[in-house]
Amino acid sequence: MKFGALFGQGIVIYAVMYLALQIFAIHGFSGLSSHIVAIVILVIIATIAGRSLKFRSWTDIAPYSFFWMLEVIAIDAIVTLPYVGTIMYSDWRIWVGYVLVALFPLCAPYTQHRDDLTV
Fold this sequence. Notes:
Blueprint: H1 3-26, H2 32-52, H3 58-79, H4 81-84, H5 92-103
Helix pairs in contact: 1-2, 1-3, 2-5, 3-5
C-alpha cells in the first residue's frame, strides 16, 4: 500500500477542484458550461492520480480511488459543511462528483502506454 498516494492524492484532487470552483465563483462562471469544465478538470486530475500509482489493473487502483472518494467527502464535511450546512448533501451534483472521484482513476491503466503489448 502506497500511503503517501493514499492520503496525498485525495487531498490534491480536493484542492484542485476547490480552487477551480472558487475561481468559477469569483469570476461569475456558472451554468452548464461551468459544470462541464469542472467535470473535465475532475477527469484529468483523477486520471493523473490513478496513473501516478503505476498499476496495470483497475482492480489494484480501486482501493485507492474509493478511499480518495471517502477522503473528499470527509474534507468537504470539514471545510464546506460549517458554511453551507447539510443542505449541500441534498444537491445530486455533489454526489455525482463523489462517484466520479471514485470511478475516473479506475480508467488510468487504459490511458497508459504499455511496452509489453504485442501486435
